[in-house]
Write the structure tokens for this entry.
Amino acid sequence: MSTSATARYVVHAAPWSSTAGGNGPTAKIGEAGGQVLLPPGDVGDSGRVAIAADPTGAAFGLWQAKGHIGAGIANVPGTLVWNECMTRDFDSAKGFYGRVFGYRFDDLSADGFVYAALNVDDRTVGGLGQLPPEVPAQVPPHWSVYFGVTDTDEALAKAESLGGRRMTEPQDSPYGRMAQVLDDQGVPFTLIAVES
């Protein structure tokens, strides 16, 4: 990955990984081939923040909680339900996230699709996948977030009424009906139906 000042990063709704303390993870990022884009800094009494990119160029945030612990509710409608990194160099990204965050990986690959669940202890915390060859070259490696909804078609219509744009038509998946959306500022995210 280029570390020059001209390197470009595309804005996505990126996940924020919780850190236990100090600046430890940011030191590991450089050692593992990534780049710290925004060095650790205080956000008042709320916590400390840093922004980084993996060796393939996918950007993500780090959060060390103080007064603000982050999301208190997840995995229900109206909340974050999944974080996912899609990249063109799966093996490099897998090595990076394993080394920096200690993730374990459960292979979920099938039929030409390379994908693994990211695990911390006994919890699945996200996914890592290889961008398929049919994805246009201008789509960069990226992290994306999935928000749970009770009805994907209804939520997509609401997003469009508020200035969002559909990137994909709603489709059924083994995990729930889903659609990719751009918000009114052009930031992509995914809606997925989950049980309440």
Residues 1-14 have pLDDT under 50 and may be disordered. The two ends are 41 Å apart (CA to CA). Residues 70 and 162 are 26 Å apart (CA to CA).
